[in-house]
Design brief:
Elements lengths: L2 H31 L3 H38 L9 H18 L3 E8 L3 H7 L1 H18 L5 E6 L2 E6 L8 H12 L14 E8 L6 H17 L5 E3 L3 H21 L3 E10 L5 E12 L3 E3 L1 H10 L3 H18 L10 E5 L9 H8 L10 E6 H6 L1 H13 L3 E7 L5 H7 L4 E4 L1 H4 L6 H16 L3 E5 L4 H9 L4 E3 L9 H18 L1
Parallel strand pairs: 4-5, 7-9, 9-10, 10-11, 11-12, 12-13, 13-14
Antiparallel strand pairs: 1-3, 1-4, 2-3, 6-7, 6-14, 7-8
Helix pairs in contact: 1-2, 4-5, 5-6, 7-8, 11-13
Amino acid sequence: MSPRQTAGVIAAIYLVLGLVWIRFSDQFVFSLAGASDYITELQTFKGFGYVIVTAVLLYFLAYKALQRERNISQRDELTKLLNRHMFGQELNTELSYAREHELVLAVLLVNIDGFKQINVHAGLAAGDKYLQEVAAILRDSCHQQVFIARFNGDEFAIALPEALWPHAVEPLIHNLQQRIATIQLAALPDLRLSCSVGVALFPRDGEHSDALIDHAGKALDEAKSRGPGRYKVYDPSYGELANQRSLLLYDLRHAISQRQLSLVYQPQFCTDAQAITGVEVLVRWHHPQRGLVPPDQFIPLAEQHGLICQITDFVMQTGIRELLEHQLLYKHIPRVSFNVSATDFNGSGSCDRFIKNLAELPGDWSVIELELTESAALINLEGVKRVIEVLHDKGVQVSLDDFGTGYSSLNTLRLLPIKEVKIDQSFVQDITNNSQDAKLVRTILAMAKALHLRVVAEGVETHAQATYLKREGCEEFQGYLYARPMPVKNLVTFIENLNQRQRMQS
């Protein structure tokens, strides 16, 4: 029963009982008092008027109260969007119409990548304000026939009736991702977050609301596993992939606790390839049954489930110990680079963690370089900046990895004490054939020279790439053309052979 109908019933019951009570009670009272029938009728008439007026007021008050209660039960209090329960009910109604008229319908689940960083670094109030801005963008971007809900936390749902994939859905997703990426918070002015989207289509991916929402969730999980700012349309294989990731996560926890991870080292060279300028330390996982698990599979998994700090600590401590044990650090290797994540800079204990990891160094900390991707820096710029400044004062160098792939590289260089930029291998790969990549690399090199920054080109695999980079003034190379990642014992042999060749040439 609707709030209007319920309020009408309440008012009607009150009116009937009131009128009956006045009619009989007035006659009884005035008969005892010996009053005339005229007086009795007059008082009864006035009583009727009071009851009718009161019933009308009661109707409006009850209607407003019931409507508010219903809205509270149907809508999310923070964003005023539908809640999950009402979204499911509305979706089932829309599905009945779509089924009857043989229409296509799309369900989208939208999740904000890295949202918890706002709550951690700016507080819950800032997080609530951000979610309200996201809700406003969702409302503004969708036409009236679309209904939207907030499920929980930073997850939203959208139902697109009469959707024609991909003509209606893809443009909406791109628009949402672009607009959400522009949201700026006063407390974290340099923070820009992306969103991931999962899509399920009726009737292909499910006949009922529960199935569509579940499959959109699986598509969302798959999108997030590929990195931030992605979207995926449901595929039946995603359920099996989700199960595989769950098993992989369980095995990864075990591998970390049992120290089953290992390290490899990829040398970096000056342009003549005659001297090693540094090594990048990379983590590897040899699974007992699966074999070698690629880092792009387990590193994102570790970041999503709070394991990346343990991996970073292991890599830094083990890398320093192995290089010192084989007498490579300081003597043959002037710089060792470690990849770090935005999560490594969460909380007040982050700086203490890094200092503890570097405590075994017997000499100058300037041999240590932390490689931070721009996207990771922007997720938690204030936290990164605080820790980096302390470590920089102790001599630690900072490199901006995957340079050129973000949207505010110059701002990141301005705010952090960056000493080196690494040209992303995606630009190097086709540098001799793609004029746009070539122009971008030349621009990066010119800018780095003006700012007195060291430049390392990643992914150098051909002599043509190396020749072009040399001609444009790149200082250092890293890639398969010169050396593949190798265990520390192989690195010892590699350096010995390199030194022997240099002696023979001299």
